[in-house]
Design a protein that fits this description.
- The chain is an all-beta fold.
- Helix content is 0%, strand content 41%.
- It is built from no helices and 5 strands.
- It has strands at residues 2-3, 10-15, 20-30, 33-40, 49-50.
- It has a 5-stranded antiparallel β-sheet, with no helix packed on it.
- Strand 1 and strand 2 (10-15) form a beta hairpin.
- The radius of gyration is 16 Å and the shape is extended.
- 0% of the residues are buried.
């Protein structure tokens, strides 16, 4: 992890074993949590994923966690 020196929020994550690097930006507060509004691969900075909505503590049906029928 690389952290912003002023906010201590992650700005970059690298997982060499998976050959993965991600950058994060446009942090905003959602229900008391700081979350990134954008992320991108530093090798392709033109491909920015913009996250439009974050939901916290959403109620989920227990059906989502049931094993698949065979």
């Amino acid at each position: 992890y690389w952290l912003d020196v002023e906010t201590y929020l992650p700005i970059k994550v690298a997982v060499p074993a998976w050959e993965l690097e991600m950058m994060f930006g446009d942090w905003t507060e959602v229900e008391g949590l700081m979350v990134p509004q954008s992320c991108w691969d530093p090798s392709k900075p033109e491909d920015i994923a913009r996250l439009e909505e974050w939901k916290v503590n959403v109620e989920l049906s227990t059906d989502r966690f049931a094993p698949p029928e065979q």
